[in-house]
Amino acid sequence: MKKLFLLLFTAFLFIGCSSDDDTIFDYVGTWSGSYEGNDKGVWNFVVDKSGKVVGTMHSDVNDENYNISGNLSEAGDLTATLGLPSKGEFRGTLSPTDKKGNGNWTNSLPTPPKSGTWKGGKK
Fold first, then answer.
1. Could you tell me which of 83, 58, 72 has the C-alpha nearest to residue 29?
2. From CA 1, how far away is CA 85, in angstroms rounded?
3. Number of folded domains in the chain?
4. Long-range contacts of 43-46, Cβ-Cβ distance < 8 Å, separation of 24 or more
5. Cα 42 vs. chain centroid, distance in angstroms?
6. H-helix segments, 1-123
7. Range of the domain at 62
8. Residue 95, in any domain of the structure
9. 106 assigned to some structural domain
10. How far apart are the C-alpha atoms of 27 and 55, rounded to whole Å?
């Protein structure tokens, strides 16, 4: 009986301790990279333990900084806005497995509207 209990306990232990379950804590920290398209430059943001994202996107073309502010889901889906002086979006996906991320960005200010892609990783 003890052997059966030990066998079942071990099986439940392996099933219950799967590392496939992503949590927001897998993403917490500083992420940075580059972006390109109608504009190009670098970006940097921090993900906190509540999933809040705050950072900056710097344009090499206009020599301006744009604020990144948004949220990250436990699945790694990033939804953020660009602001001051821009008006746009910064969206994509972060992966805790390979610590890389990518996505798309849009910015309607300053005119004309700009858009492109971004990529980077966790520091």
1. 72
2. 70
3. 1
4. 43/68, 43/90, 43/118, 43/120, 45/80
5. 15
6. 2-16
7. 26-122
8. yes
9. yes
10. 15
- Which residue type does 88 have? G
DSSP letter for each residue of 72-101: E-TT-EEEEEEESS-EEEEEEEEETTTTEE
Beta carbons within 8 Å of 93's beta carbon, 6+ residues apart: 76, 77, 78, 101, 102, 103
Q: What is the C-alpha separation between 81 and 91, in angstroms, rounded?
A: 8
CA 27 to CA 106: how far, in whole Å?
Answer: 23
Q: Over the stretch 32-74, which tens digit does the pLDDT of each residue have?
A: 999 999 999 999 999 999 999 999 999 999 898 999 999 999 9
% pLDDT > 70, the chain: 80
As beta bridge partners, residue 31 has 45, 122
In the block, which residue shows the tokens 């200010």?
109
pLDDT confidence of residue 85? 65
Longest dimension (CA), the chain: 75
Task: Report d(CA 81, CA 20) in Å as an integer.
Answer: 29
Quick one: how far is CA 37 from the chain centroid?
19
